[in-house]
Write a structure and sequence with these properties.
Radius of gyration of chain B: 15 Å
Helix content of chain A: 25-40%
CATH superfamily of one domain in chain A: Rod shape-determining protein MreC, domain 2
Shape of chain B: globular
Largest sheet of chain A: 6 strands, antiparallel, barrel
Distance between the termini of chain B: 20 Å
Largest sheet of chain B: 2 strands, antiparallel
Number of helices of chain B: 6
Number of strands of chain A: 12
Strand order of the largest sheet of chain A: 1-2-5-4-3-12
Structural class of chain B: mainly alpha
Distance between the termini of chain A: 154 Å
Shape of chain A: rod-shaped
Strand content of chain B: under 5%
Strand content of chain A: 25-35%
Number of helices of chain A: 3
Strand order of the largest sheet of chain B: 1-2
Oligomer: heterodimer
């Protein structure tokens, strides 16, 4: 029976299986590791040498092209960043302009008795002795000489001269400007005068009138130049000299004239020219 | 002809800069007058026969834009025209010095004319205040800007007068 099984073929297979199992056993148990290391290390060294040479070779030919590509991409990205930054600046400017226009719109809505036309300030007077601004609306937009100009804060001035697409506004701080005002607290009227330096002062307030620092001044409507009840400014100081009939004082305007960028023109106010009546 | 065109275009460019930028750059209440500086520099460079016509146009434009009475720019610009001729004849070797001298005199002259024009309109003027807060700061700014404006006009003059710039 055994002699039948131990044929040369089966014996060979059995030996092969035993050898394989033995090698696997020795390998798994770690006894063959030095042998593997010794036999594989030359191949690894050769492979490393070849890989390094190949990488060096590849870098030598490909790196310049990659650098050029990277530089181009970098330039494109820088350009894109600059464009986006300029867009941000433009959007911020638009936002600021929108805020101003929204504020003006709110003012127009809260004062529905007048009709308004919004205009942008595009220039300022050449001479530092005069206080004028130039706006981008003119007679083509329905503006006329003498129309009052305001902002959401208060009175700005009136139209002094105009052409088809632009107008020149005389500010209330101009030396030639005179505004009839009333003190809100005392209900007393006075005159607001500008000066060459751009400061405004209150005049013609009767002696004896109690005027407090911080009292609010509004247009009185007298003279027909400006509509009544528009904020003008607040009292800063008052002076009352002896043997004079009127008090004078300095006034802080409510409008910041140095940063005016947009204004509203009151288009439905008809000014009255009283100059022929003045002797 | 091309020199008049270049002068006109240069003046218009200065006008836009003045209205939008330089009128807002202030020391106290004073500001620079770029238009006056341009007229001075141009008069010092231009030796053409009909320069007075260009000066007249410059004065007309300023009168149209500004609220100043018409006679103020007219008198000041023609004063600059005459003074620049005299200065050029006397100190032609140092054009920058000529520019500074004319700027100094013209700035003070323009301030005096403007104040006189305002005074004529029955406006009370605090002269000391006007001098300290407007005239002197404006003069300082004009003197500072005279040098770059002179250099700019000199470059323009190379195109306007290709045969040679005298000042």
């Amino acid at each position: 029976m055994i002699s039948k099984l131990l044929t040369p073929k089966n014996l060979r297979n059995l030996i092969i299986i035993l050898v394989v199992v033995g090698v696997l056993f020795l390998s798994l148990s770690g006894y063959l590791t030095p042998l593997f290391s010794f036999s594989i290390s030359p191949f690894i060294s050769a492979q490393s040498w070849l890989a390094q040479r190949y990488l060096a070779f590849s870098d030598f030919f490909n790196s310049p092209r990659d650098m050029a590509t990277l530089r181009a991409e970098n330039a494109a990205l820088n350009e894109r960043v600059a464009m986006l930054q300029s867009e941000i600046v433009a959007l911020q400017e638009n936002l600021a302009q929108s805020d101003i226009l929204y504020t003006l719109l709110d003012f127009a809505r809260s004062n529905p008795e007048h009709e308004y036309l919004a205009a942008t300030v595009i220039g300022r007077e050449i001479s530092p002795y005069l206080q004028y601004i130039i706006i981008d609306k003119g007679s083509n937009d329905g503006l006329r000489h003498g129309m009052p100009v305001v902002t959401q804060q208060g009175l700005v001035g009136r139209i002094d001269a105009l052409i088809s697409d632009a107008a020149r506004i005389q500010l209330i701080t101009d030396a030639n400007s005179v505004v009839n005002v009333k003190l809100q607290s005392a209900q007393v009227e006075g005159l607001l005068r500008g000066s060459v330096t751009g400061e405004i002062s209150l005049d013609m307030v009767p002696v004896g009138t109690k005027v407090e620092i911080g009292d609010v001044l509004m247009t009185s409507g007298l003279g027909g130049t400006y509509p009544p009840n528009i904020f003008v400014g607040q009292i800063l100081t008052m002076q009352s000299k002896e043997n004079v009939l009127f008090q004078t004082g300095s006034v802080q305007p409510v409008v910041d004239f140095s940063s005016l960028s947009a204004v509203l023109v009151i288009t439905n106010f008809d000014t009255v020219d009283i100059s022929p009546l003045i002797p | 002809m091309i020199s008049y065109l270049i002068g006109f275009m240069g003046y218009m460019a200065m006008l836009m800069l003045q209205l939008s930028v330089f009128s807002q750059w202030k020391i106290l209440a004073g500001s620079a007058d770029l238009l006056l500086l341009f007229v001075i520099a141009w008069c010092l460079h231009d030796r053409s026969k009909y320069l007075w016509l260009l000066v007249l146009v410059f004065a007309g434009i300023t009168t149209f834009i500004s609220a100043l009475p018409f006679y103020v720019p007219l008198a000041v610009y023609f004063g600059v025209y005459l003074l620049s001729r005299q200065i050029h004849a006397r100190i032609w070797q140092t054009p920058l010095l000529g520019m500074l001298v004319v700027t100094f005199i013209a700035s003070l002259g323009q301030s005096a004319f403007t104040l006189a024009a305002i005074f004529v309109q029955r406006v009370d003027i605090n002269l000391a205040d006007a001098l300290n807060r407007i005239t002197l700061p404006s003069l300082l700014l004009n003197m500072l800007l005279a040098i770059p404006v002179h250099a700019l006009v000199r470059e323009l003059a190379y195109y306007a007068f290709p045969k040679g710039v005298e000042a």
